[in-house]
Amino acid sequence: MATILALETSCDETAVAILRDGELVASEVASQVAAHEKYGGVVPEVASRNHLVHAPRLLEHALDRAKIDIDQVDAFAATSGPGLASSLMIGASIAKGLAIARGKPYLAINHLEGHLLSPFFGEANIRPNVSLIVSGGHTMSIFVRAVGDYEIVGRTVDDAAGEAFDKVAKLLGLNYPGGPEIEKRARAGDAKRFDLPRSMPDSTNFSFSGLKTSVRYLLPKLRGNYLADVCASFQQAVIDVLVQKTLAAARKYDVDLVTISGGVSCNEAFRQQMARACAKDRRELKTAPPSLCTDNAAMIAFAAALQFAKGSASSVQEEIDPNLALA
Amino acid sequence: MATFTSNSAAETESLGRDFARKIDKGDVVALRGDLGSGKTQFVKGVVAGLGSGNEVTSPTFTLIHEYSGGRLPIYHFDFFRIEDRQSAERLGLDEYFFGDGVCLIEWADKFPELIPPNAKWISFTTKSETEREIAT
Lengths: 327, 136
Known about the structure:
The complex is a heterodimer of chains A (327) and B (136).
Chain A: E1 3-8, E2 14-20, E3 23-30, H1 33-37, H2 44-66, E4 75-81, H3 85-102, E5 106-110, H4 111-117, E6 129-134, E7 139-146, E8 149-155, H5 161-171, H6 178-186, H7 209-218, H8 227-252, E9 257-261, H9 268-280, E10 284-287, H10 298-309
Parallel strand pairs in A: 1-4, 4-5, 6-9, 9-10
Antiparallel strand pairs in A: 1-2, 2-3, 6-7, 7-8
Helix pairs in contact in A: 2-3, 4-10, 5-6, 5-7, 5-8, 6-8, 8-9
Chain B: E1 3-6, H1 9-20, E2 28-33, H2 39-49, E3 64-67, E4 74-78, H3 85-89, H4 93-97, E5 102-106, E6 120-126, E7 132-135
Helix pairs in contact in B: 1-2
């Protein structure tokens, strides 16, 4: 076992984590949601500038919290993509610099690998599974054979599920980030009141652009009290598609395990319905703990630890890649 | 100025492919039109037409997507969620506009003053649930 220090700066969260012998001994996240609220979104220049401010401070905090000296770290890891070039550069440069200075290996980790392994956090054995990653920037299902052995089953051809939540929230005049706002209002709503489209039912890929457009055309026709019902109907349309396609993939690849991760997997209604559907299909569902659903460095450290255990290391010459592919 | 009618997402993408032939290094393409009028679909066609095999998705959340592998680097922007001019300026647009590739900007009409005067504007108008008018 080993001590791994990881940085995650792929989008708007600056995060540092330390994993020691499989145990998370520090996980620091400087959430930038407050800074972005006034811009109504993630603005790359703001994000990268903030990463530079937060990262050194978080590194110190993490080492303090873990009660270790930087010399005790066996490998330094960072997210090398996909994400915003200017943001990725900061985390990766820090990790590479530390690796060179301390003469330790550097591990370039794919952000999506961090997500898809996060439901196994703390475990050493990764069983074959069908994994669904759902967040603001990504919607993707993957057949996971083993650590590092991935096959993309389907992905969004337009908007990510979390982005659809954000866009619909914006149409409804709700705050950013839109996911939790819609979820909150959906609880009191009637999910059957509006019949919204479930796109591409026969494809392994996802599409949420048409759903967004449907909500847009629906709103001007509505009068009176409709907010909760629109939220519930929209949320249900997203959940139906995610559940149906993920289970179809699990059947196709004949796996008895389904895993979900990413920000949207924190949605309580989605978790419950996915759990029911898996139970009915006699498959196990593993979910990432909520603290690992939003962008964080613990999942990057965990993926790095599994890679390190396999004897993998990356070259410090390895460039970040905004479009880094998983498979 | 030319006006085209598209009756499907596939037709809009095909118009984007045709448009890609006329694109040169340093071009800025400003897209305007309602939600769901086909802007991202058009960009898909342009990116494929330029020879990049990258998957094109909406950059609403991330604001900038970069596509490589084609005859020019492509930078895909989205102003939809940007609230004020100051935030838009923080994107460092000039570095991209006067760079080595082509820039495609969705919701460019939100900050027309930030778009270079020689930009190619394309308007998307929703005529019905499926019909779109695309004016270049």
